[in-house]
Each structure stands twice: as C-alpha cells, then as structure tokens.
Amino acid sequence: MTALPRLLIVSGVWPHVVGNREAANVICHQITCHLARSGLFDVRYVVINAFETAMPGAAGPEVEDLKALGVHFHEPVKADLTPAAGAGAFNKLKAVAAGHSDRLIVGTGQQDKLLRSLGGEMPDAVLAIWAETAGYMASSLPIPKFNYAGNPDHKVLEARMELEDWLGGRSLLGRARDVMRLKVTRAGHLAAMRRYDLMWNVAANDAADYAAAGVNARYLQNMWPGAVHADWQAGRDASEQTAPLKIVGNVGNISATGNSFGLMTLATQIVPRLKEKLGEGAFEVHLFGGGKPHPSVAPLLNDPHIRVRGFVDDIDAEILSAPVFLVANNSQRFKVGHTRFLHAWSLGACVVGFSDSAEAMPEIRHRENALLGDTPEAVADLVVEAGRDKALRRAVAAGGIEMLTTAFNPARVVGELIRDLDARLTSRKTGVAA
User: Fold this and answer.
1) 286 Rama sector, left if φ>0, alpha if ψ -120 to 50, beta otherwise
2) What is the share, in percent, of the chain residues with pLDDT greater than 90?
3) Cα dihedral 200, 204, 205, 208 in deg (nearest 10)
4) 3-class DSSP state of 333
5) What is the DSSP letter of 218?
C-alpha cells in the first residue's frame, strides 16, 4: 500500500472553534479537519511562535477529535528572537546589503528548530495557514511549500505608520527610520513568500499585489464554518432592538490597525451623521472584542452613543439582537478582507460598510448581500435606511447567507485547496506539469 504524502501544517495558533474568539483558530481548524477527512494526506500540525504557545483548555476536545481523524500534533516550536542575520546593527546592515533582508525577520533560517520538533523526519510538503513566524520558518524547507495567507506583513506595518501620522505620533527622525524599516520588511517578506510554490490569499487585492511582486499567488476565498443560525428570521424578529437602534460597530481586537482606522471613521464621521439623522439617544453602537483602543483613539469613543463592551459571553446573541452590523473599516488606504462579514452573514445580519470592501472580497455586492456606501455620510445614511426597513434588512441578510453557503463554504474552499495540493504533489512525482 502506497504511503500517503506527509503534509505538515504550520500556524501560530491551535485549531479550534468552540470557546474561541479568534478567526485564525477557526480557519486552521476547518482546513485541518477537511484535509484529514480527504484521505489524501498524512496530516501533521505544529504551532510556531516567537513566544511559548501552550494549548488553551478550550481547544482540547477539538484537538482530540482531529487526532482521532489521524492528525499528528508535534511539540510547539518557539522561534529565537535573534534573527538569522545575527544581533547588532552591523550584522543587519550586512544582510540588507547582501540582499538578504529576510534574514532580519524572526523565524527565517530557523528551520532546524522545526525539524527537531518533527523528530528529524522531513515531511513531503508544508502548508502555512495565516502564519507569520511559522510561515517564515517553513519558507526555507527543501520541500514543496504552500501558503493560505492573510494580510501582508509590510502592508500592515505601513498602515500602522500611517495611523501614527494621523494621530500625530511620529517625529521626522522616526519617519525616516520607519521608511527604511518598511523597505526592509517588504523586501524580506516578499523574498520569503517567493519561496512558496503557491500562495492562496483571502483578499483579491492582496493576491494581485503579491503576483505583481513575483509571488505565485492567487485569490481564494476566506471561509466560515457551521450552519446558518437555525430559524434566523424568527430569532431576529424576537430579539432585534430598534429603540434605541442597536448597531454592532466592531467585532475583533479593538486595537488592531484596521479597527483603529474604522473606529476613527465611526466616531468622527459616522456617529455625528447618525445624530443628525436619528437624533440624540436614538441609537447605540456596540463595540465587541479584546484589547484596548489606541490611546489617541480612546477619547474619540467617549460618547454616550458608543458602548465599548469588550468580550461578552454570547457574541452570537449580541449580533442577532442588532438590526445593523456596521463595518466601518476599509474607508482609508488600508483595505483588507474581514472574516466578520462571514460571521455576520451566518447570523442573518444586515451588513453595512464601505464600497471599497469589495476590493478585497469582490463577492460583497451592494443591495444583494450588503449595503455599501462610498463615503462615511453615505454609510451612515444606509444605517438609517436599514434600521427603518425590516424587509430590506431581511433581503440583504438572505443574500449574505446565500453567499456564505456557496462561495465562502469551508468544504468548497478547502476542496479547491486540496485539488491544488494534490495536483502539484502528483505532478512533482510524475514529472507532468499540474
């Protein structure tokens, strides 16, 4: 009997859905589960970070279920914080001058640490999932390499710098240093990503940017698991809060770069427009997720219409009771895909956001599965329209559910990923191009 190809999954998180608040864990679980069930691979899994990553208690049952499907979990790997180029400014400058900027990034050149976790056994292929340190560490393995990726590191860094400019936090010297840091990060990141045989990116605009920079990248949708909330319409009819109008304004780490941009837009442009249209006290914007707002953003949220809720026991119930799910991100230059669209659709939410969200997720369409505006004022007006029109909310939500269960269905997305993996590994074995 022919042995199955040993496929190593590397990520920075443990794969689980239940008792979890982070999209990366959910995505890793879905991909790992479908790969194991395909029967085409001998699946291995390693968590890699620059810090200790013990398995959270909530992940235990689902990790055991994955083990029962044949997934082998190896010991987590902690990367050395000293880059492969070595410590000190001289070593770093020497690496940059030699065209090895990737050796300044933690994880690069540390594949021996990974191999020790594997007991010295080299896998047949590696798949990085939404991985930073793990993706860099795996990039030098002498085997076929694949990457299901999210936001590019240099894009996030550039957005953070832009955010600091908006908030007046960088000196001229700091800006000069950051320009060099950005160039080095971009060069190093792209050098590592070019070593991958194939990247699937969950944002269409990022996939195109990677391809233009010489990475073999293409767009493949994000995903969200689980059935649509049972009888979502009846659930919403019974729980939606319209007086005052409840609006979900954030789901996820409130200090994240994209969310910081979104919260500034929300507080300074959308909320004032809502006050004009709806009146004082007629609405509430609820912000969910961990972390603390950026120190310069926090004062903007000091408004009686904005409620910073943090983590809650039942986020699904909160979303179900809100007639409007507002995504205020993607109004600035930093435009990325957001899993929260999928989470909202799974609960029959009427999603309102910016038109530019479709640059990353082209499946998002105005008045089909979301309400999209070009400006903060237009977005606020759509919030008002949705709050007053239940039939519109239900029609938009139905379109979202249709999109969720087709284009963003985990079985479909991972099925496409599996076909690519199988074809490329088979072509290497037979010598026939995939």
Assistant:
1) beta
2) 70
3) 50
4) coil
5) E
**Residue 163 has which token pair?**
């955010």
Nearest to 10 by CA among 162, 123, 157: 123
Cβ-count burial 380-417 (b if 16+ within 10 Å, e if not):
bbbbbbbbeeeebbbebbbbbbebbeebbbbeebbeeb
Token representation of residue 131: 């991985």
Backbone phi, psi, residue 251, to 5°: -135, 120
The region that residue 40 occupies, defined by phi over 0 for left and psi between -120 and 50 for alpha, beta otherwise, is alpha
* pLDDT tens by residue, 362-377: 999 999 999 999 999 9
pLDDT tens, residue by residue, 352-361: 999 999 999 9
Query: For residue 431, is pLDDT > 70?
Result: no
The total number of residues shown for the chain amounts to: 434
Distances (CA, A) of 160 to 79, 155, 231: 24, 9, 41
